[in-house]
Design a protein that fits this description.
Keywords: Membrane, Transmembrane, Transmembrane helix
Pfam family, one: TPR_6
Distance between the termini: 56 Å
Largest sheet: none
Protein name: Tetratricopeptide repeat protein
Shape: elongated
Helix content: over 70%
Number of helices: 12
Number of strands: 0
Order of helices and strands: HHHHHHHHHHHH
Organism: Sphingobacterium paucimobilis HER1398
Radius of gyration: 19 Å
Length: 237
Amino acid sequence: MENHSEKIQDYIEGLLEGEELTSFEAQLGVDKELRTMVGLQREVYDILNRRAHQPEGSLKLTLEEVNRHYRSTSHSSKRRLTKWLSISAAACLLVVGSLFFFQGSNELYELPTMRSEVVRGKMENVSYEHAVGAFNAGKYKQAGEVLSVLLEKDPEQIQYQYYLGLTYVGRKEWDKAIDRLVPIANGPSVFSTESNYYLALAYYKKGDTDSAKMCLNKIPAEGAIGEKAAKLRKEMD
């Protein structure tokens, strides 16, 4: 399919609608290679998009160059996938290399990548993947709408609750973020530690430094989150 990569990009950016979206998601549910291509293209898009704040938008230009190069190919699906693997690796190397020069305090405010994971049932998985694409593209309102619908069907799903809370952080709706993240941060789930970090961030942005520090105190010192928590606390002091 000549325009597969364009459809994938439109899907990742949440531009597909109606029958076109339904058709694509149906194909996504049965086509393993398509799911792989979506995952790869989303990975590069996510990494470059998150670094668009860097000087002169150099990494965003790199993404556009990679995307044009990929879209220009017209080989078989297998050859396109092989080429895209190489392109993805090259783009990721450029991003990683640039981080050594441009890391700054912005990293404390960045949201994590929303991971593609099997949650429950086929239709729920497809909807979740749509939320993943919107979230990682910075379209937090759209991602939140999808996650809210999923939560109505499965209100006990902590993963949905956690990422919905993060959409409010992304939209700077601090009160809603706090309401959503407090029970997760105080609970036993695998999202507890990260929830405490983003809960602290929400409190801090609201001006409630004391509550923010209480959340940070619950985070173990070791690991990536522990390091970010220490930096955020230092910024508060």
